[in-house]
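Data deposition worksheet. Section B asks for the primary sequence of the deposited chain exactly as it was used as input, without tags or linkers unless they were present during the calculation. Section C holds the resulting structure in token form. Section D is free text for depositor observations; keep each observation to a single sentence. Incomplete worksheets are returned to the depositor.
Section A, Depositor: J.P.
Section B:
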Amino acid sequence: MVIQNISRQAITEFVFGGFDTVQQPLSVGVVLLIMYILAMTANTANVYFIVMDKRLHQPMYLFICNLAIVDIVNCTSACPTMIGILVAGYKIISYVPCIMQMFIFHLSGLMEMLAISIMAFDRFVAISSPLRYHSILTNIRCVLIIIVLWLAGSAITAIMPATVVPLQVCYSTVKYMFCDYATVTRATCVDPEPYFNQGSILTSVLCFTTFGFICLSYVKIIIVVVGMSSRSDKKKAFNTCFSHLIVIICYYAPTFMRIVLTRTGLVLTVAERNGLMIGSILGPSLINPFIYCFRTKEIRNKIFNIVKRDT
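Section C:
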């Protein structure tokens, strides 16, 4: 315990080295900054439209609003640090903010999966029981579901800082872009592989559990749609699910790719690992709000009305 305290006092901050090989850091940083601003603006606009318009206070829009909040948290947990490194050259973070950043980053990643999963359930109820939809998923129940998911996600994510905080810190320089579980674990004196394996198992279980739930929901949706006699009803059901299917692909495709590539022994370069990580963070956060802006009639009409009024 004395050794750990001495080490903790000796190393109170980390230096990021994940972008040291980037040829034009300022240009990359500016592009990243623009993408971050777009993601924040689009998601904030979605939240504002839904909160301010009482006509959008319905289960589907509450879940869209929750997803937008998750995307805001996910981007903000990592992007400002990366932008600071690339644009301003500020590579230092203190120990406690690093642990907080790690927790928030992994919490937002888990909440992304849970948010997409509950939206799949919402679509299933809407298509399979349209007449009972508003009695099954009331606004109060939806808000309670969202609160429970955030609490459950926080409890699960707390496992990560709980396992690394007691470890002795030995290294102040890390070859990463921001603080995540791998960053902090690499900075300790222990062999990181057992901790990486535990983290991979937890991540894989959560990914495949939520993805399995989504697939099961859509299997049931397909069964219901196939049984419909009206082509217009089938088309309406497809349009209802299409936006959500794009969201699922945008999130799970890079996530599964990262899990498979990193755990099958394939060695990625620093640039490849960084690109994959940035894509998995910014990709869904950029695409999701625009999908719901342009695919959801109520939000799309609201934007067009604002544009017409301004012009």
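Section D:
The CA atoms of residues 36 and 76 lie 8 Å apart.
Strands lie at 13-16, 92-94, 173-174.
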